[in-house]
Structure prediction request, 357 residues.
Amino acid sequence: MRARLVSQGLRLPAEWEPHAATWITWPQNPCDWPGKFAPMAWAFAEIIRAIANAPGDERVRVAVGSAAVEKRARGQLKKAQVDLSRVDFFILPTDRGWMRDCGPCFVEQQGPQGPHLAVSGFDFDAWSKYPDYALDALVSPSIAALLGLPFVPAMHGEHLVVFEGGAIDINGQGSLVTTEECCLDPVVQVRNPGFTHQDYEAVFAASLGIRNTIWLADGIKGDDTHGHVDDFCRFTDARTLVLCQETNADDANHAILEENRERLEAARLEDGSRPEVVRLPMPAPLHFDGLRLPASYANFLITNACVLVPTFNDKNDRLALGILSELFDRPVVGLHAVDLVWGLGTIHCLTRQEPLG
Prediction:
């Protein structure tokens, strides 16, 4: 169902606002976790159980590639003692498994009968890096159709805008944080050739209702998306951001994160006030098969009942969970993510919240 968004009255709800459901794609592409695909069913079952078995009524909507995959997933979730009465399955073939990036961007539009949900339809091209994305590019409009929601392609002039959910984080009040590395690099993983700061800001306003964009510099090392902000900087409420901190001055992430700290210290929110910035530790560098992985506590998912945080068998796990516990009004739960991060992403990257409409 095609429609048109009007930027006046348009709002992208914050992740801590009530959800109808969380979407996730059941793992089905071994290339996402080469050599570690077997444990993924258990890892995904842990995420789904933490949401479906929690108090409240948030559902988990699971995209599966076929009826056979659904049968296997149901069996795995049953073994993990997941409350299947709160899990919905949709046959929705995908190339990969990163719902945050290819999935629907649910926006709230004011109308004569009150607010209603729509899907702001960004295009997806596998981070302008991989060739296998034809199915993933259909995920957002397909979910909009399944839910009976208007689907509105994100356009800038005649240009269909390529973008991913992990590239932004928002406060629900009109402010957005993103990185220049992801949006504006003219050579590496170029999503929208020739776009400027002003072009992106116009898109964020027209498609997401954003009035204020905070531009950070680069993302952390090991992130093959080339600068996704959800690996190191996140809003925890309308006025507070957590920003990862690397205390080892010899680590490549130290200078990256300190430059971003300087930018945040000069940043303003949509009302002109300064945000509060809370530092979140980094785990020790994690490598597998000679590759640095983007291990970070900032890749958490906020659900109705709790906050799910990736942990890494690291001495900073407890410290990070404690810091986040002070910032949220719901329990903070750590989930083991050492195997997950071999896919170059963890809990937030794998999921997408559906606001309560």
